[in-house]
Amino acid sequence: SPPTLNDPTLLRERMLIDGHWCAADDGRMADVTDPATGERLARVPDAGAAETARAIAAAEAAFPAWRGRTAEERGRILRRWFELMLQHQDDLALLMTREQGKPLAEARGEIAYAASYIEWFAEEARRVYGEVIPSPWPDKRIVVTREPVGVCAAITPWNFPAAMITRKVAPALAAGCTIIVKPAMQTPLSALAMAELALRAGVPAGVFSVVTGSATAIGGALTASPVVRKLSFTGSTGIGRLLAAQCAPTLKKMSLELGGNAPFIVFDDADLDAAVQGALASKYRNSGQTCVCANRLLVQAGVHEAFADRLSAAVAALPVGNGLEPGVAQGPLIDLAALEKVEALVGDALARGATATVGGARHALGGTWWQPTVLTGVTPDMRIAQEEIFGPVAPLLRFETEAEAIALANASESGLAAYFYAGNVQRVWRVAAAIEAGMVGINTGVISTAVAPFGGIKQSGMGREGSLLGIHEYLDTKYLCMA
Ligand code: ADP
Fold this sequence. Notes:
Layout: E1 15-17, E2 20-22, E3 29-33, E4 40-45, H1 49-68, H2 71-87, H3 89-100, H4 104-124, E5 131-133, E6 141-148, E7 151-155, H5 163-175, E8 178-182, H6 188-201, E9 208-210, H7 215-224, E10 228-234, H8 237-247, E11 253-257, E12 262-266, H9 272-284, E13 294-300, H10 301-316, H11 336-351, E14 355-358, E15 373-376, H12 383-386, E16 393-399, H13 402-410, E17 414-415, E18 417-421, H14 425-434, E19 439-442, E20 457-458, E21 461-462, E22 475-482
Parallel strand pairs: 7-8, 7-10, 8-9, 10-11, 12-13, 12-18, 13-16, 15-16, 18-19
Antiparallel strand pairs: 1-2, 3-4, 5-6, 6-22, 11-21, 14-15, 17-20
Helix pairs in contact: 1-7, 2-4, 2-5, 2-6, 3-4, 3-6, 4-5, 9-10
This protein binds adenosine-5'-diphosphate.
The site of adenosine-5'-diphosphate (ADP) has 15 residues, from helix 7 and helix 8.
Protein name: NAD-dependent succinate-semialdehyde dehydrogenase
Pfam family, one: Aldedh
Family: Belongs to the aldehyde dehydrogenase family.
C-alpha cells in the first residue's frame, strides 16, 4: 500500500525532466518496494538513454540563465528549498522509511541532515571569492576568478536517499551549475519528492532534473556526453572505478565517495562506556549500511573482554523490527543481496574460528532482517575484516601494541573514516597523525556534519562534500593576466 502523506502530491510516480513530470518514452515502469514488507509502494519510470539525453539538453539550455543569476538569488531559492524540506519533514521521513527501511527517527534525522546541506550551500553561494595575486611584472595584474563548471551529473545510492542528493545538488546549484540526478532505484521516491519541493522553491526548469530507470543506460548516457562536465558519484568502489573509466574519454571532473573499511580502535586507556556508545552509533546506525560504519573493531588486550561484554549486552538489547514501529532501532537490510552478503561474511568468519557472542544468523522476523551481531576472535585474514560488511555485524580483533593497531588499521585499500578511543593526549595526537583516512573520529562515533569536509583517501575516492570545500567541487578556476 502507498504511504499516507499529509501532502499526497509529494509521492511522485513520474520523473522530472526540464521542469515537466514525465513517463519513460516506452511507458515502462519499475516497482518501488518496502523492504520491511516486500509490498509495492509505487512505480516510477524505467527510463534510459533517450530520456537522459533530453535531461542533458535541458540542463545545457538552462545553464546560461542560471549562472547569470546573482549568487544572492540562487542562495535565496536554496534557502526556500531548505525551509520546505523541514516543513515536510514528516512526509519525507515516512517516504524514506517505507522505501529504505531505516527507523522513522533516523529518517527524520536524515531529512534534517540533508536539509542542512542546502542551508549551508545557500550561504556559501555568496562566498565564492577569487584572488588578486601580487604580480611579478610591473605592467600586468593577476586576477583569479571562480566559475561554475557547467552541466553536472550525480549518481546516488540508497543508504541515504535524501542526504546523498542534497550534498551534491545544493553546492552545484549554489555555484551556478545545472545538474541531473540518477537516484538508486531502491529509493527514488525521496529523490522525486525533493525535486517537487525544489520546483516549489523556484528552481527553474532544467536546472535540476531527476531521471529514474536503468543504471547502465542512464549512467552510460551521462558519462558519454561531452556536454556533462562533471560527475559526482556515491556508491561502491567497483562502480566508482567503472564510472571513472567511462568518464575518461571526455575527461570529466569527478567527485567519488566510495566504499570504506573503517577501523574503530579501542585502546587500554579509553573510556570504555563512551567507546561502547560510540561503537553502537557508528556500527548499528542504518543497520550498518553506511560507508563510514565501523567495519573492524580493534580492541587492545587489556580491555578486550570488558569491551566485548559491554558491547554484546548493548547489542542484544537493540529493538529490531519495522522502522515504522516506535522504538525500533534496527530495520531490515535493503534487499536479499545485502542479506546474503552479510550471511556469507559471517559464515566465513564462524567457519574460520570466530565466535558470535550475540546474533550470528538471520532474524526470526524473516525477510531481510539480520540479527544484530558481535563476533569475537576475528583475524585479519577473514573476509569480514577485509570487505565492507554493510550490515549490523561488529567483528572484534584483539591487538597488543599501538604500533600493531596502526598497522592493522592501515592495512586496507580504503581510507574513508576511522575512529579511535584513547585517553592519553600524546597517543591521541600520534594515532591521529598515523591513521590513513580522510576522516577520523577521536573519542566519538559520529562525525558527519554539513560544515566539515566529508571524503576519503586511497581507494575510497576523491573530492570532499560539505564545508567550504564542497562548493569548489563545482567551480573551475580562471586566471586573468591583464596587461
Ligand atoms: P550499492 O552497492 O551501495 O548499491 P552501487 O555502486 O551498486 O552501490 O550503486 C550506487 C549507485 O550507482 C546506484 O544509483 C546505482 O543504480 C548506480 N549504478 C550501479 N551500477 C551502475 C553502472 N554500471 N553505471 C552507472 N550507475 C550505476
